[in-house]
Specification:
Layout lengths: L1 E2 L9 H4 L13 E2 L21 H11 L4 H7 L6 H4 L12 H11 L9 H5 L26 E14 L2 E17 L11 E5 L14 E5 L9 E6 L15 E11 L3 E7 L2 E7 L3 E7 L2 H5 L1
Parallel strand pairs: 3-5
Antiparallel strand pairs: 1-2, 3-4, 4-8, 5-6, 6-11, 7-8, 7-11, 8-9, 9-10
């Protein structure tokens, strides 16, 4: 029901505050609303405006009390790297329906307040109940093809070098766990791939679970960050599934001679040497400034 200013009990309060209304031009409208007819909108689907998909998923994972490895296992993946690309802070894409279902099965009902399936399915790009789809104009990152393979990784047992424990990574070369958007500079190149950094040894340059892009054709230079493939010995580690895992080091190249390769990490700061005969190959990590220039 609609009332005019003279009929509204609050209309005269403006005069008490020294405000002057001209009857010919100003009317205050009071509208009665039946609150029983208003559907509440959950505010847990998007925690705040402007958050990337990866930030939202990481928040949900932490709200559910999962580690990265536990979240991946609950979602049906063999390794933590199966979910890592989706929980990166800078991951802004939409997740596929089949991935959303895996995550919804793992997250729904957990946490405080309990996570609802719609919080995950909203990240597929489907409209929420009572929502109005909005189409935005302008450039889109979808113009980049999402076909750059991401290889599976897992944190390996420490390697002892010069009496120091050095963080290692298992790389599953035959396991493509997803595809990243291909920067324009890598168009037409089959020698590039991505992988997730495991552990904190390269922090703050590469945090745990950061995605790095690697190239195989361009030889590394001193000062480059590199992925060093180590030759297997007779008793190389196997993962929990019994599949053979190749050990790699993600480090910075300091020095290279015919007999030794000197590497460094940032956390804790350590410089160490690896015998050249133990290195199968070494690939260059592409700096982000090259990818966006």
């Amino acid at each position: 029901m609609t009332q005019f200013a003279g009929q509204c009990s609050n209309a005269s309060k403006g005069l008490d505050r020294g405000l002057v209304f001209h009857d010919a031009y100003v009317h205050t409208v009071c509208t009665s609303v039946n609150v029983d007819c208003v559907s509440p909108v959950a505010d847990t689907v998007r925690m705040s405006d402007g958050q990337a998909t990866g930030q939202i998923l990481r928040h949900l994972m932490e709200r559910a009390g999962y580690s990265v490895r536990d979240f991946a296992k609950a979602a049906g993946y063999s390794h933590g790297s199966g979910v890592q690309r989706y929980i990166e802070p800078h991951f802004e894409g939409l997740i596929k329906p089949d991935v959303a279902k895996r995550m919804a099965d793992a997250l729904t009902g957990r946490g405080t307040p309990p996570i609802e399936a719609q919080e995950i399915y909203a990240l597929v790009g489907l409209p929420l109940p009572n929502g109005v789809p909005v189409q935005f104009e302008g450039a889109s990152l979808e113009r980049m093809r999402q076909d750059l393979p991401i290889l599976g990784t897992a944190l390996g047992a420490d390697r002892v070098a010069d009496g120091l424990a050095i963080e290692q990574t298992y790389l599953f070369e035959d396991e493509v766990i997803g595809h990243a958007k291909r920067p324009v500079i890598l168009d037409g190149r089959a020698d590039a791939y991505g992988l997730y950094v495991q552990g904190a040894s390269m922090d703050p340059v590469y945090e745990d679970a950061s995605l790095i892009l690697v190239e195989t054709k361009r030889p590394p230079r001193i000062g480059d960050n590199v992925v060093v493939y180590l030759r297997k010995n007779g008793h190389e580690h196997d993962d929990d599934d019994g599949e053979s895992a190749r050990t790699v080091l993600v480090k910075r190249l300091v020095k290279r001679t015919a007999s030794l390769i000197e590497l460094a990490q940032y956390n804790p700061p350590i410089t160490f040497a690896v015998a050249a005969k133990d290195v199968l190959k070494m690939h260059r990590v592409i700096p982000w400034q090259e990818l966006i220039s």
